[in-house]
Design brief:
2 copies of one chain form a homodimer. By secondary structure, chain A is an alpha/beta fold. Chain A is built from 11 helices and 17 strands. In chain A, about 30% of the residues lie in helices and about 20% in strands. In chain A, helix 3 crosses helix 6. Chains A, B: InterPro entries: Alliinase_C (IPR006948), Alliinase_N_sf (IPR037029), Ethylene_sulfur-biosynth (IPR050478), PyrdxlP-dep_Trfase (IPR015424), PyrdxlP-dep_Trfase_major (IPR015421), PyrdxlP-dep_Trfase_small (IPR015422).
Chain lengths: ~400, ~400
């Protein structure tokens, strides 16, 4: 499935932008950083939850390296985190955990490094090719090239992979940057698929089935917004692969922060316990809150983009979400914005309007695209909308360049 | 400086072993794991400190990836941790921090990976050789070989390095496993030195000067015993090296757990604030407490080893410690035990007495050595002493093997 684009028109700022007064906290000329997907949108929810989510640890607790020496797959996984992960996937219905080993990582980035180590071997004759369909998550390239591993090598866009040899395909679904649901592209014998499901949560996309791929990666950063905790987890069907991933983590960092594991365990359990009640007066269903907020932001963004007459946004299909029971479309964590008439450097255009984004080239595609975070704080989102509204009536780059000089 | 050995004799268990009743909590046939240096010895101190060291974090705090975007060396270092690290080194006088950049890591293991990345380049013609003087920390080999990097390669014992090319020497001081203070062995032009100072704290060794090497690695695991937190830090003289280390951490794990950083910041500050008062009735000087405990353990161990007539222990010089003001010897976190008359597998001998240790071969040396943790819980230390006492009157492996069968 590819990311179709939706051409929409108009200009001026949306009068519907909520809480636009929030921008008063930021100087008008502040450069807003929407390059990273820093998930500060979720702070208001967690603030509302009060002490129920407060994590306390005494000075003498969790001194040991070990969390659960009896766990054959991962000796540093806290049992409470394991329980919460299973409870949450069970409640949301987005992934099967029965029959899977769970490996915890310092974010899902470390887990991807661990997977690459686990499914390759120093005895193989050549480095294993690793591919992902463009536009692909820009960090994959950096992860693959980091220390020039002899086990694996980045081989670019999966659409262009035509070697008759073992390979690894990274399948990001929903895709970062484009937000679309994806399957593998190469689909040949001897291929190993790694499913990066960081965004397969109800606030971003309809949950259409409980997935059961061989290797599935998730992260608290995108699920609940606790990016600072650096907690990711892998659901792994083959326990031998899980054990090798654990070995990687042992040599790389001797396990994963216990404080983060225990805090995220608490947070995930709070989410799981409350996520089956919809429309409750307490407003304590995290996914309902987040989905409503992202839906509003996307409405405002689409209206603004339409008015500019300059950009397009991907169009997402309406689908039945098993979790909410509604027919809905995706509201991704990133907007994948394309300059309508082609452009050499859309990232620069945004930067000149004081919006830091990540340009298409880094995702292996056209520099006329930019990826813009949709999960920033309200003030930053409002500034994005303000500034996007001001990029109007410009029909070409020259015209734009003339104006800003 | 090398690890001289001290031959001592006798047999039977030390009657001076304190709290030997503690062993009642462990079944008599429990296999005790003294392979890792799991620092659970420190739990009793932190328990005594009560709520002063309790760490509390609310559900909405520290969601962002960023800790300090204005820090040019390390954007994910929590300012509070930076302050505590400086305060602690200042109070102890073991390392200079003025003029250094601080980089935080998920344990010092990750920092070593980061250093290797930072001081090499993909443009260099060959992999840089990395060496350490035997006996060297066993994990170095695993770290160097993990993903078969094209940037660097493990080249074994520094004493045998004779290539006329750039190299990296890992200088572990005090050394793991042998506990001795060390300097570089190769000392040629074009060499980069990485000082692993995990054990350069007053409970383990006299603090004889405030070190100011180019790259110095430390870890909370060995300093305060908070191994589960996975917090290490590097003091780096060249900010460009620090920046490259930060880049490594960004691609490897997108930073380091904020919960761990903030908790360890609190713990280090508590240690720093109280570590200049000696003999206070509160007994709240962490290094004083720890040094006293290790000193007692070493006395008991030396007496027990002497009685067995079978093993030797390294002898450490008496030195003036600038921190305590006393003349004292080292009391390392590991005992580096040598079978007197040579042996093929001392690790196996200990294992048959239900003591898990790490054998000499893994440290690049004679299998007649074993490394045994001295920082275990009291019960385990007592069981070690009990069992060591029982390995007596055996003058050769055959005799031993006959007895245990």
């Amino acid at each position: 499935m590819g990311g179709s684009t939706d051409q929409v028109h108009a200009n001026g700022r949306s009068p519907a932008a909520p809480n636009s007064g929030d921008t008063k906290n930021l100087p008008l000329d502040t450069l807003i950083n929407l390059d990273h997907g820093d998930p500060r949108m979720y702070e208001s929810f967690w603030r509302k939850m009060g002490d129920e989510c407060t994590f306390v640890i005494k000075g003498y607790e969790s001194l040991s390296y070990f969390s659960n020496p009896k766990n054959p797959a991962c000796w540093f996984l806290e049992p409470k985190l394991e329980d919460s992960i299973k409870a949450l996937h069970g409640a949301v219905g987005n992934a099967v955990t029965d029959g899977y080993s769970i490996v915890v990582g310092t974010g899902s980035s470390q887990l991807l490094h661990a997977v690459l180590y686990a499914v390759t071997s120093p005895d193989q004759p050549n480095q294993t090719s690793v591919v992902a369909a463009a536009p692909y998550y820009s960090s994959y390239v950096e992860i693959l090239n980091l220390v020039r591993s002899g086990l694996y090598k980045w081989d670019g866009d999966a659409h262009e992979f035509d070697k008759d040899e073992p390979y690894i395909e990274l399948v990001t679904s929903p895709n970062n940057p484009s937000g679309v649901i994806r399957g593998p592209v190469v689909s040949r014998d001897g291929g190993i698929l790694v499913h990066d499901l960081a965004y397969y949560w109800p606030q971003y996309t309809p949950i259409t089935s409980s997935l059961e791929f061989d290797i599935m990666l998730f992260t608290a950063s995108k699920c609940t917004g606790h990016a600072g905790s650096r907690i990711g987890w892998a659901l792994v069907k083959d326990i031998e692969v899980a054990k090798k991933m654990t070995k990687f983590m042992e040599v790389s960092t001797i396990g994963v922060s216990k404080e983060s594991q225990l805090r995220v365990a608490k947070i995930l359990q709070v989410v799981a316990d409350r996520c089956k009640r919809f429309g409750s007066p307490e407003g304590d269903n995290f996914f309902e809150f987040s989905k409503n907020l992202l839906t509003k932001r996307w409405e405002i963004l689409r209206e603004t983009v339409k008015k500019t007459q300059m950009f397009t946004l991907p169009k997402y299909p309406l689908q039945h979400c098993n979790y909410t029971g509604d027919v809905t479309q995706a509201h991704p964590a990133f907007a994948w914005i394309k300059y309508k008439d082609g452009m050499d450097d859309c990232e620069m255009l945004f930067k000149e309007h004081k919006i830091l984004t990540r340009g298409g080239k880094k995702f292996g595609t056209d520099p006329g695209f930019v990826r813009v975070s949709m999960v920033s704080r309200e003030e930053e989102f409002n500034l994005l909308i303000d500034r996007l509204s001001m990029i109007q009536g410009l029909n070409n780059v020259d015209g734009y360049a003339a104006e800003i000089e």
